[in-house]
Amino acid sequence: MEALRASVPGTTLYVAVGLDHDDRLTEAKKLAAAEGVAFVDVTRAELDRLSGGAPHQGIGLAVKPFTYTDPEDLLRVALEQPDPPLIVALDGVTDPHNLGAIARSAAAFGANGLVIPERRASGVTPAAWKASAGTLARLPVARVTNLVRTLKAYAQTGLMLAGLDGRAATDLADLELATGPLVLVVGAEGKGLSRLVAQTCDLTVRIPLSSQVESLNASVAAGIALAEIRRRRT
User: Fold this and answer.
1) 91, 117 contact by CB (below 8 A)
2) pTM of this prediction?
């Protein structure tokens, strides 16, 4: 339902035969009809096969392949906005659920888009679509062959680079760069920022944690940082 509300480019809505009545199901069917999306009744076994075994609750939406944005176009559009650019770059985030959740936070807190590497990182998969709750239909995502090169190119246009690093000396609350043109760089689950990416950043900041907790999930850390950046900007 959220995907259809967000005009995710769907092609077919699949609904399992015998599914209990639900207002959300009724709305999903109406939205599909309004968007010209085909509606097909299938058995649960067929829906299991179509979804590759992923949890589907008796309903699924087939979507067109995701169209990535050119990184230069993402930067150009960000620079054209009235507010200072805010771009989120992901360094080796491999979990598509984290990618989708970060996209949702990025959209919620006013980021212009995401930059992700082509290799050793998640792309926009069905799981990422689902975790984003439809926001990937509206948030540009650029996929690049070399993240360090892209970050350096962005820096040459005046954007500052701030990386999240649990070992950094500066707290997130002291990120003075938050109010200006900024790229927030989020590292991989567990490993954090790679060495070259960390060296490319102008500054690294940490989220203060209780001594009983070693680290945060990448999407949670990104959400906290984006919320703090938004707070400082407003």
Assistant:
1) yes
2) 0.84
Q: By percentage, how much of the chain surpasses pLDDT 90?
A: 68
Q: pLDDT tens-digit profile of 69-117?
A: 999 999 999 999 999 999 999 999 999 999 999 999 999 999 999 999 9
Pick the CATH number of 2-63 from 1.10.230.10, 3.40.30.10, 3.30.1330.30, 3.40.50.1260: 3.30.1330.30
Is residue 180 classed as helix, strand or coil in its secondary structure? coil
Smallest CA-to-CA distance from 114 within 71, 65, 149, 51 is with 71
pLDDT tens, residue by residue, 36-55: 999 999 999 999 999 887 77
Q: Which CATH architecture has domain 71-233?
A: 3-Layer(aba) Sandwich (3.40)
Report which of 74, 55, 66 is spatially closest to residue 8, judged by C-alpha positions.
Answer: 66
Domain ranges within the chain, ordered by starting residue: 2-63, 71-233
| Rounded Cα–Cα distance for residues 219 and 224 (Å) | 9
pLDDT of residue 137: 84
Strands 59-63, 86-91: pairing is: unpaired
User: Are 32 and 7 within 8 A, CB to CB?
Assistant: no
In angstroms, the CA 1 to CA 216 distance is: 30
Token pair 């949702």 is found at 104
Task: Please say whether the dihedral angle defined by the alpha carbons of residues 212, 168, 178 and 88, taken in this order, is positive or negative.
Answer: negative
Query: Which is more confident, 143 or 1?
Result: 143
Cα torsion 125, 116, 87, 81: sign: negative
| CB contact set of 130 (below 8 Å; sequence gap of 6+) | 3, 100
